[in-house]
Amino acid sequence: MKKTTLLLLPFIVILSCFTNLRAQITIKDLDKAAAFSFSIMSDNKGYSIENPAMKKCDLWIRESGDAFILGLGDHVKVNRLNPFLKLIKHDTLWHNHFYPNVADGENEYWGDGQGDWGAGAPILDSVDLSSRENVQIRDNKCEYYAVENHEGITVHIIQLHYSDSPDDPNFAFNESSRQYLMDKLDGIDKTDEDIIVVLAHDGPWVEQLSAKRKAKLINKADLILGATTHMFQRYHFLGKGVDTGAASFNTGAVGNSLVSGFLQVHVLKNPTKMVVQYQMTHKDNRQLQDKEYAFEKVINGKITAIDWANYQID
Description:
24% strand; Purple Acid Phosphatase, chain A, domain 2; seven-stranded mixed sheet; alpha/beta
């Protein structure tokens, strides 16, 4: 072995150890580094913690100390016992910190069918949403705007009603809802300490917007969410390969999917950014996900898939 190589050997060993240490980042490290975290779940079809997937969802939300939980709808199912309603009515975490979405499952449960527009609004009463000072519910009783403030960061939550039924998007996602979205976006003075989250149940609902409205939404929002397909995926509303604009995802399903899971979002500071992961409930415990299921979104910046072996959280 050459003398130069021998002299460098200690430094190579140290570098190797440092690289291996970085590769061993854990979900607990991410919990500690985050200013706060929150989760998004959908399509549990009335199941609660008696369901193994929902039990893990509930456990992992508590384990990470999530500040709040966003729902994407289909939280109830007609002709089922729907123990989820008991959970959100009586459990302190879910009752006080859950933000449901009114979707076709809710319309069918409380109304005359999935296309009974807005009939699912009573799910909001299950968490006494109207009594929360940080929530403004529309006169239609099924759409709302909420604000969560944590560690100097403001999360703006815009919940829209767009159910799977009827098929005509001009009815299911009507002009009033579209204009409401635009008005709420216009009313937010966006900074790097503001995170805008927009939710509607029907999958890639963004495609129903006009080009002008779509551009405004994607360029101002930070996280756009849809559901209904029961399959997690990233949407590329600006085209594949474009890494700007809002991070857009389908939230999958808890207990009703071959890849059952829910989204968990860790918010980090300096700069403000989100780490978004699809936590898969077939796994034994909560963990960092592969790059197909883990993304970083810098507020007012880029979105990239995460390779944990080369990612620094501090």
